[in-house]
Write a structure and sequence with these properties.
- By secondary structure, the chain is mostly helical.
- The protein has one domain.
- Helices cover 73% and strands 0% of the residues.
- The chain has 6 helices and no strands.
- It has helices at residues 19-49, 62-69, 74-102, 114-132, 135-145, 147-180.
- Helix 1 (19-49) packs across helix 5.
- It is flat and about 65 Å long.
- The termini are far apart.
Length: 182
């Protein structure tokens, strides 16, 4: 029986050299840091503001939006931007792989349907991005990076542990604020 993914090998989702594997692991760590930062930002906001959410600035003008970025919940907003930016960066890193497989265009009718061609390219890039998040590809990236590659996953493990500890702390802080009245 043939494997469902056909001729997929972890090397096919990584470009040659050390940059691409390092970028894959680092982007994964940045995306992994976002949930921790979000939970810590919410906890910071709750500890600072308490039950007095009316003290948060209203956002109606650009200056008020800037002041909101300086609010106690700013780390949570930064975490959302970090997660979104990490996803865009992962797409950008997967783009050259889609060009490597299909060339500069997909299909002979690029003049007639340029929007369709870019939609196909985007689907292909997203597929490569998804393949690059799989365990075999990340393992291959770690192997290619050598000693550095074996250290970076520990940072991801530490971030995961920190996320769960901070989530429990957030629940405790929330309970104490509700019970104590702020």
């Amino acid at each position: 029986m043939t494997a469902p993914w056909g001729s997929f090998t972890p090397d096919s989702a990584l470009r040659p050299g050390r940059f691409d594997p390092a970028a894959l692991i680092v982007v994964g760590l940045v995306r992994g840091a976002a949930p921790v930062l979000f939970v810590l930002g919410v906890m910071n906001g709750l500890l600072t503001v308490g039950n007095h959410l009316e003290s948060l600035p209203a956002i109606a003008t650009p200056m008020q939006a800037f002041r909101a970025l300086l609010s106690p919940f700013a780390p949570a907003a930064v975490a959302v931007l970090l997660r979104f930016g990490g996803g865009l960066l992962a797409l950008a890193l997967a783009y050259p792989l889609s060009r490597q497989v299909t060339g500069s265009v997909i299909g002979p009718d690029i003049v007639k349907r340029p929007l369709r061609v870019w939609q196909d390219r985007l689907h292909l890039v997203r597929a490569y991005r998804s393949m690059r998040w799989t365990s075999p590809v990340r393992t291959q990236a770690i192997v290619r990076l050598g000693r550095t590659g074996y250290v970076l996953p520990w940072v991801g493990t530490i971030l995961t542990i920190q996320f769960w500890v901070s989530l429990v702390a957030l629940l405790v802080v929330s309970y104490l604020l509700v019970r104590g009245g702020g």
